[in-house]
Description:
heterodimer, A: five-stranded mixed sheet, five-stranded mixed sheet, B: Nucleotidyltransferase, domain 5
Amino acid sequence: xxxxxxxxxxxxxxxxxxxxxxxxxxxxxxxxxxxxxxxxxxxxxxxxxxxxxxxxxxxxxxxxxxxxxxxxxxxxxxxxxxxxxxxxxxxxxxxxxxxxxxxxxxxxxxxxxxxxxxxxxxxxxxxxxxxxxxxxxxxxxxxxxxxxxxxxxxxxxxxxxxxxxxxxxxxxxxxxxxxxxxxxxxxxxxxxxxxxxxxxxxxxxxxxxxxxxxxxxxxxxxxxxxxxxxxxxxxxxxxxxxxxxxxxxxxxxxxxxxxxxxxxxxxxxxxxxxxxxxxxxxxxxxxxxxxxxxxxxxxxxxxxxxxxxxxxxxxxxxxxxxxxxxxxxxxxxxxxxxxxxxxxxxxxxxxxxxxxxx
Amino acid sequence: xxxxxxxxxxxxxxxxxxxxxxxxxxxxxxxxxxxxxxxxxxxxxxxxxxxxxxxxxxxxxxxxxxxxxxxxxxxxxxxxxxxxxxxxxxxxxxxxxxxxxxxxxxxxxxxxxxxxxxxxxxxxxxxxxxxxxxxxxxxxxxxxxxxxxxxxxxxxxxxxxxxxxxxxxxxxxxxxxxxxxxxxxxxxxxxxxxxxxxxxxxxxxxxxxxxxxxxxxxxxxxxxxxxxxxxxxxxxxxxxxxx
Lengths: 358, 243
Ligand SMILES: [Zn+2]
């Protein structure tokens, strides 16, 4: 071992994740119990159902992680846990479980912001991966998920300057809503990406909300436009307005999915690249569930490469919520002397900011 | 099988959080309660730490964890059960989930406030428990029946001869029912420890993984799916690959 081994717990939304991460980089185990299928029938997350599933799965996930890593709690140097932002009931399960493990095993407890976890996923190495350079500072990080869409500048570890973000919906929410409009079900992101791949004609244009020179983005106008464009497409196909009464032909669904995705990818890429140039960044880190989107990954990497910027995008399984990203961020916080007491509680609206040592 | 060491009890189903230590036989050694409101998580572990320290008991000496499963406040139940699971896992001791609602009825029955009034003595089946569930609804617990949800504005149908035990409903239920509720909360730890010790002696501990709280309210139109439905665990080697 070259650095501390962290047990990291994530339960802020609908994934129960527990990981063992060495030195903030090397994954020894990263087990995730995903509730995506559990919430599909309701087309979104029901907090009470999510919290109960966390309680049901947290012990098996912990056991699986310890077995996979081949360690016991005695080998662990600290316990890290997400304490916000997220769903209060879901956060409480992970927080109180992690807090109790840390107390009973006499390990330091490190509180981690879920959003910085998404950024720090960029530092992770899978078991067996060759060593590689860490993302270079200064950098710009774009986090895009079902709940969040924002850009930050980092000049050093744990140092965040907010550059801009969504003024209304998160990108992932827009994907879910348009996915529903197109009859693709929940969650919308992977379904839209899959359909967009199949588009033969790539000429459907959805509007872009540039919001001037700011680094802010807006998706509510795009959502409204999508409703109008889908309605027109249905009329063109001679279908009734109600999307439950007859599905659009696959070809049209694919074209519309491509057009919508292209609008989101275009705006996110342009804002991120401009932010990187303006702050003199040496690299870009992409994170969050929407960063699993293949079109976004390809476009932003291409643009970054053309400008000689280092581009860091974790593999899709590390972009969606997981414990390893909390272990990566937790190691930085541990090194900075950040600790939580036994009174650690959920902070559903926790902002991303430099943590204070304690 | 008995606990083999002191039983630590946690109940967070009501706004008054309760922790207690019992002997392996379930006899109450000491209980501590505090008004947690809906923020049970802030104090629970520090209070447990304090209770064990004051009694000179090391965590490793504990023989079992007993925890209230509700019905009651969602927030509290999550905190209590997540903490109990963490403890049972860390200490490698059995866990017993005890229905807090039935334990409150047991406690009310044993309370002096339930002593036979000259007119009528309540029989066990005649006590029914009323608690808030969420901001508007209430939940009614009858022995031998599943807890029933009372949507906001609905009155409980109290059957002839039944007597109400009201918890967390001061000012919103009859004084007599509220007083009996307070007595029930005072006796909750003893009632739960007795139940837990009985279950442990019978070798009837719960499965640490699958123990979940008793939920009775959900948003309109949402049904609680089966406990194991819709969850996929990934990220480790397939089981077959392990020796
Ligand atoms: Zn996330």
